[in-house]
Design goal:
The chain is α+β, with helices and mostly antiparallel strands. It has a single domain (about 20-135), classed as Endonuclease, Chain A, CATH 3.40.960.10. About 40% of the residues lie in helices and about 10% in strands. The chain is built from 4 helices and 4 strands, in the order H-H-E-E-E-H-E-H. It has helices at about 5-15, 25-35, 85-105, 125-135, and strands at about 40, 50-55, 60-65, 110-115. Strand 3, helix 3 (about 85-105) and strand 4 (about 110-115) form a beta-alpha-beta unit.
Length: about 140
C-alpha cells in the first residue's frame, strides 16, 4: 500500500500536528475545570513536561494521541505504510520515552492518569474516570 499523499504533502501534514494545546487536551482540561479543579500546563520542571499538573493534589494527567503514543489495541495506532522503518523507530522511541517519563514521575511521588484520545468519545466514562482519579486522595 502506498501513501495517498505526496512526500511534500505528508511532510506538511506532519508539521502541522501540534505538540500541546491539542483538541483532546482542551477537552480534558475543560472537564477538569468544570469539576472545580485548578491546574498548571506543561510544567517544564517535571520529567516529560506533563500535559496537566495538579500540584496541590500531586496528580498528573497525560493526554496521549493514540497514533503518536501507539495505544495498544487501538485502531488509530497503526504504522504508516510508507517509510515504515522510520515510523517504527520513531513511534517506538515515543513509547520508550513515555515509559521512562512515567517511571520518573512515579519515583517523584506523583499519581498519574493517562487518557487516550479514543477514550474522549465517551464523555460520561471520561468524566467518571477523571472524577475517580481526582477525588481519590489515596492514589
Amino acid at each position: 500500500m502506498t501513501d495517498r499523499l505526496t512526500p511534500e504533502q505528508r511532510s506538511s501534514v506532519m508539521r502541522s500536528v501540534r505538540q500541546k494545546d491539542t483538541a483532546p487536551e482542551r477537552t480534558v482540561r475543560s472537564k477538569i475545570h468544570a469539576m472545580g479543579f485548578r491546574f498548571r500546563l506543561h510544567v517544564r520542571t517535571l520529567p516529560g513536561n506533563p500535559d496537566i499538573v495538579l500540584p496541590r493534589h500531586r496528580k498528573i494527567i497525560l493526554v496521549h494521541g493514540c497514533f503518536w503514543h501507539q495505544h495498544p489495541g487501538c485502531r488509530k495506532a497503526t504504522i504508516p505504510q510508507s517509510n515504515r522503518e522510520f515510523w517504527q523507530k520513531k513511534l517506538e522511541r515515543n513509547r520508550s520515552r513515555d515509559r521512562q517519563v512515567l517511571h520518573d514521575l512515579i519515583a517523584e511521588g506523583w499519581s498519574i492518569l493517562v487518557v487516550w484520545e479514543c477514550q474522549l468519545r465517551d464523555g460520561k466514562n471520561l468524566e467518571d474516570r477523571l472524577r475517580r482519579f481526582l477525588y481519590d486522595e489515596h492514589r
